[in-house]
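Final report, Chapter 2: Outcomes

The project's central promise was a pipeline that accepts a single protein chain and returns its three-dimensional structure in a standardized token representation, suitable for archiving and comparison. That pipeline is now operational. To close this chapter, we reproduce one record exactly as it appears in the project archive, with the input sequence first and the structure output second.
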Amino acid sequence: MFTGIVTDVGEIESVTHTAQNRLHRVRILCHYDQTTIADGASIACNGTCLTVVLSGVAGGRTWFDVDVGTETLDVTTAKHWAAGTRLNLERALKIGDELGGHIVAGHVDGTATILTRDDQHGMARFEFCATPNLARFIAAKGSVTLDGVSLTVNSVRNEAFSVLTIPRTLDLTTLGNWRPDSEVNIEVDLMARYAARLSEMKCASSTEI
């Protein structure tokens, strides 16, 4: 589990394609203490929970390797990752840690496209378009995770929704580089997903009576 509070911005050093290009071994540079990264640890990379398979230190900087499989390549923006790509990173939540954002599973549901960016007094308002199957889980004042960042939804209009980002978020994450027509990873709020499922089951039961 994660909270959507980014703790580092990493950079991809290399991407190695294996298994007929359906498995990518990705090496990511970061600022974490390498001694705290165990093989098998989970790290959210742009919102995608990935498993560390190896780690080390080179040139005074920590690196860790992850394998990105078919499902992740199909569903997320990982298919576009290359050397030099910057990623929002978050370590897995520990018992007793502060839940500063909202409960995030690290299981990306798909991608959303940035429609507009409106810069205003150091902040930025972004509008996105989500697919209909995901848009139904997005509500004004609810939570959404975009590229691993926990954000509050400002407004919703059909499949479009907007968020407002503060200067600190723009400075400490990759969001400052977001531009229209770019794709971002999206994970909808778990609570919204379960609420919708319960509602669907209730409607189905009523219909059967």
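Archive annotation: The CA atoms of residues 48 and 188 lie 13 Å apart.
This record, like all others produced under the grant, will remain available to the consortium after the project formally closes.
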